[in-house]
Amino acid sequence: MHVSIRASAGAVVHRPPPRPAWLCHHGLVSMGDIRQVPVTELPNDFSDEVGRVLLDVREDDEWAAGHVRGATHIPLGDVPARIEEIDPDAELLVVCHSSGRSMRVLQYLAQIGYEGSCVSGGMVEWVQQGKPVETGSTGS
């Protein structure tokens, strides 16, 4: 949703809606406190992982262009509304394009009692290391 306002001379200026506070607030957990896991230490496929979840927080188009098989897809902005889909007892690994969104999600999750790790370098590093990806919009 965008907000339109009229500027002088009849021009219409479009502004994006305000971001949820949790996306902007860094909270009590600093990025330096979040564990980073290299992609080289992760399996190529999370389909059969028990007790371990790879959460991909990229947007739908990014997911469709290439994602890790068996990953759970919840876009960044949907995480609070879909929090019940994240097992609080699982080892949580969060991935995005290059780590920025993953770190923000992990800061938010830490504030509500979840623990997790960031996939260092995100999907950029995943692909650079030659690890496989699936394409298409199906999946979690």
From TrEMBL:
It comes from the Bacteria. The keyword rRNA-binding does not apply. CDD domains: RHOD. SMART domains: RHOD. One of its GO terms (molecular function) is thiosulfate-cyanide sulfurtransferase activity. Keywords: Transferase. Pfam families: Rhodanese. The keyword Transferase applies. Its EC number is 2.8.1.1. Residues 48-135 form the Rhodanese domain. This is Thiosulfate sulfurtransferase GlpE. The gene is glpE_2.
